[in-house]
Design a protein that fits this description.
By secondary structure, the protein is mainly α. It contains ten helices and three strands, in the order ααααβαβαβαααα. It has two domains: 128 residues, NAD(P)-binding Rossmann-like Domain (Rossmann fold); 39 residues, no CATH class. Helix 4 crosses helix 5.
Length: 200
């Protein structure tokens, strides 16, 4: 068990403490010489990227394309390399992400603003366009992540604050810690946001 199964099939995985079944097989001790910051991406981001490579049943000699080289995509690229893919094609548009993708194992990088990535991948692999199948989004997919706390309540859990109290405390916290949100309103962040998302 790990990755998606661990986070989505065991109640309470976002709590401070959680009972882990078969812990000897599911947990790995963090070496004393590593800080929390150094291993922060391992439990969620790295395992999500690696599980994507596993779900793709990548074999030695395969050619693999990984779209979007954010943290999870980079880990999927590294996972593809670890599983033995011979050619890994990474797709993104930010130069720093594409450079990091090459460090993580990508053999070819494609900037989707300069080149149609699907056409380029077909060209690189010598495959016909008839192999491409467009898949629609799943409406309402995120609904399964909504909070449902009846099981916790059945065990005696009750919220310490009402929704209104918690909302007021949250707003007050952000008012007192503007260093967390003020950069989001700065020109620098707006320029980054435009660069990242304007043409999507």
């Amino acid at each position: 068990m790990g990755g998606w199964r661990f986070g989505n099939t065991i109640d309470g995985c976002l709590a401070e403490y959680v009972l882990v079944p078969n812990a000897s097989a599911n947990l790995a001790a963090i070496p004393d010489g590593l800080t929390d910051e150094q291993v922060l991406m391992c439990p969620d981001i790295m395992s999500t990227g690696f599980s994507g490579a596993e779900s793709g049943a990548i074999r030695i000699g395969d050619t693999v394309a990984v779209f979007a080289q954010g943290p999870i995509g980079l880990c999927a690229t590294a996972g593809a390399k670890l599983r033995g893919a011979t050619t890994i094609i990474a797709v993104d548009t930010l130069p720093e992400r594409l450079a990091m993708a090459q460090r993580m194992g990508a053999d070819i990088v494609i900037d989707y603003r300069k080149t149609d990535p699907v056409a380029e991948i077909l060209r690189l692999t010598g495959k016909p366009a008839s192999l491409i199948k467009r898949v629609a989004d799943r409406p309402g997919h995120d609904r399964r992540y909504s909070i449902e706390c009846s099981k916790a309540q059945a065990l005696g859990w009750a919220p310490r604050r009402s929704f209104a109290e918690a909302l007021a405390e949250t707003v007050e916290w952000y008012r007192g810690h503007d260093a967390w949100w003020r950069p989001l309103k700065s020109g620098e962040f707006k320029a980054y946001y435009q660069r990242q998302y304007a043409n999507r």
